[in-house]
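note to self — DONT lose this again. spent like an hour looking for the file last time. sequence + predicted structure for the chain T wanted, 447 res
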Amino acid sequence: MFRLAWPIMIELFLQFMIGTADTLMVSRISDDAVAVVGLSNQFFQAVIMLFALVSGGAGIVISRSLGAGREKDAKSVAAMCVVLIAGIGIAASAALSAGSGFFAELLQTPDRLQGMASQYIGIVGGGTLWIGAVMALGTVIRSTGNTRAPMLVALGMNAIHLVGNYVFIFGAFGIPKLGLTGVAISTLASRIIACAALFWIFRRSFSTPIGRRDYFRFDMPLLKEVARVGVPMAVSSASWTFSQLVIFSMVASMGAEQLAVRTYLNTMESFCFTLGWAIALAVQIQVAAHYGAGEHDKAFKSALRALLWGEIIVIANVLLLYGFGKPVLSMFTDNPDIIRLGVGVILCDLLLQPLKMANMPIGNSLNAVGDSRYVMMISVPVQWGVSVVGTYVFGIAFGWLIYGVYAAMIADEAIRAALANRRWLQRKFMRRDRPAASRAASGSIGG
């Protein structure tokens, strides 16, 4: 598991560090610019869930197929994944580029931020194709057990983005200062370069390179298997992302300061669960491979081991966040009201982040063994009935503002964690029939 996890850990941690530096740079423009980026990024996460429909299911089917020794099937799924992602990406890019103003209004962006948000969404959203391509290609490559290559590409992509931000924000090397527009251009350019590198690696991820003809062969049984796993995963992910988007919209209605606090805390909280999330991604690959090979007991124990290590890491990190919260917030902004409010909210993370970690590896493991429908059934009603409704009740109706948002999220994570862990401990996947290829125990990934 750690052999798979450590490159993902480095990749996600570097993304977190670059994301933090990105937020610091944008904060030099204004707190309003930070609020626009935070709100827009939540929206982009919602759009990305369209890609999760394909890439999430494809990654699990690829790992299962390789675990069962069926590389030809894994290769076919990988090619279909890229073709479908390209189609979805082109459509999404066109819609966001043409309707950026509409989407800025839809997000209930404060009036003074409307123009800035529309421009940012138009540029970054117009390149949604590249967001989806980077996501899909990285997922496929990791599912083959190669977690190092996406790590190196992510390092290069984020370094390019950081340099681009510096050039456009501060007007380095004689380039005009373009502010938030320059940040958007830098984001788009770095993703295009990363996509080219990942595609080169992707074509060589199997024993024989993926050729042009492979992209025109659609295997319907395999596509149905991807859909059977991927659709519930996509619905769960989309539900979470859209619920967060609604929550961000409610936070936006609370005022620019509340929105800025949520954006800053969102960046800082990434430090808490980045390494734990890497373990959750790694164990999904491992559990899928063990399950494909018919090694059910190994799959069961892998998930519990990931949960234990993930909690240790997240609890240590959230204690660091609590200890250094005020000086870190002071790096982002000199607004004393935002700093005071942010420090108070960090106390809520002492509960929220360990509960998030209790969900991640077990939820991913349930998806890997084909129980994604159950994850969907517990995720959707709880996220909306507890997190979204609770945000309105506690945050707006009771007037708790950002504290009400966190109270609702804590309740949401606690309920879903209890249900998911109970399901895993019941070992129902062990009593189901094995996948068609489970008799072939060769080729297990990360075993």
